[in-house]
Specification:
Structural class: alpha/beta
CATH superfamily of the largest domain: P-loop containing nucleotide triphosphate hydrolases
Distance between the termini: 9 Å
CATH class of the largest domain: Alpha Beta
Radius of gyration: 20 Å
Shape: globular
CATH topology of the largest domain: Rossmann fold
Number of helices: 14
Order of helices and strands: EHEHEHEHHHHHHEHHHHEH
Number of strands: 6
Strand order of the largest sheet: 3-2-4-1-5-6
CATH architecture of the largest domain: 3-Layer(aba) Sandwich
């Protein structure tokens, strides 16, 4: 009987993990499932390094480019979507190959999320507007008065998480800290999966990042951001925090040269990769290490292990 355990592939940006996932999908009759929080969005195929249309034709892909940028996609929604896709893959006899660089999505898969009910849009909009009006410090003070336990866990400058805590408290009447104590239900048991962590020497990784950002500009990333600007999206939406968007928007506004925007985008990407590496060292200790420098031989080795 063929091994149908899910293969999880994590790694920093520009490490080559998507290429590995595609080759494994072709070898094993699998489906490539996204675990990158920016690649879910529709508008930025180039700048988020989503698989190309040609790559998507080589093997089935799921959860890529299906969310409009005007929406705020969440880990909770990802949990529901990926559970559905995994069920469909099982029924179709497709080997799930889940790939991405968002640690929270892998944590959602293998550890589960607290069962917090959905927050109504009007509550969410109220607290986002409040955050934009008064700033993180004031919000943190409000949270401290109402939910000191959660506030004590959050930095006073972390607007996004402070707003989230206040949203949950208002919508449910229960603190985020209390919700987080409720037992979680994992989607995938790590013991019944093949977890792979792609590793690249730091100097080589940074070289790849710099080269890829240049290639993105050449491939039309600036045009993508220009089209994004025409949508008039709320600056607080997650898509507008995607790597490179800020510098390219500033270039389009005439604030910086293209060369300066390019340098800023490369720096942002290297800093993000550093955070990904730090997160993986703390949270993916038991994952199998795959060397990006020996990817071709590693693919053959992985195939032999999991068939």
């Amino acid at each position: 009987m063929n091994d149908m355990r899910p293969i999880l592939i994590a790694g920093p940006t520009a490490s080559g993990k998507s290429g590995l996932a595609l080759r494994l999908a072709e070898e094993l009759g699998g489906i490539v499932i996204n675990a990158d929080s920016m690649q879910v969005y529709r508008e930025l195929r180039i700048l988020t390094a989503r698989p190309s249309a040609a790559e998507e034709q080589r093997a089935p892909h799921a959860l890529y480019g299906f969310v409009p940028g005007r929406e705020s996609y969440s880990a909770g929604r990802y949990a529901r979507d990926v559970a559905r896709v995994l069920g469909e893959a099982q029924r179709a006899g497709q080997r799930p190959i889940i790939v991405g660089g968002t640690g929270l999505y892998f944590k959602t898969l293998t550890e589960g999320l607290s069962p917090i009910p959905a927050v109504p849009d009007d509550v969410r909009q109220h607290w986002r507007a409040r955050g934009a009006e008064v700033g993180a410090g004031v919000l943190h003070g409000e949270l401290s008065a109402r939910d000191p336990e959660t506030a004590g866990r959050l930095a006073p400058t972390d607007t996004q998480r402070i707003v989230r805590a206040l949203e949950v408290l208002e919508a449910t009447g229960v603190s985020l800290a209390e919700w987080q104590r409720v037992p979680r239900q994992k989607i995938i048991d790590l013991a019944d999966a093949v977890p792979l962590l792609v590793q690249v020497e730091r100097d080589e990784l940074y070289r790849r990042i710099d080269e890829r950002f240049c290639a993105m500009i050449d491939a039309g990333a600036l045009d993508e951001v220009m089209q994004l600007e025409r949508l008039g999206l709320d600056p607080a939406l997650p898509l507008l925090s995607s790597l490179g968007v800020g510098p390219l928007r500033r270039h389009l506004a005439g604030e910086v040269s293209l060369e300066a925007a390019l340098g800023e985008g490369q720096t942002e990407s290297r800093q993000y990769a550093k955070r990904q590496l730090t997160w993986a060292r703390s949270n993916m200790i038991a994952w199998y290490h795959v060397s990006a420098q020996e990817m071709k031989s590693e693919v053959a080795k992985i195939v032999s292990l999991v068939q």
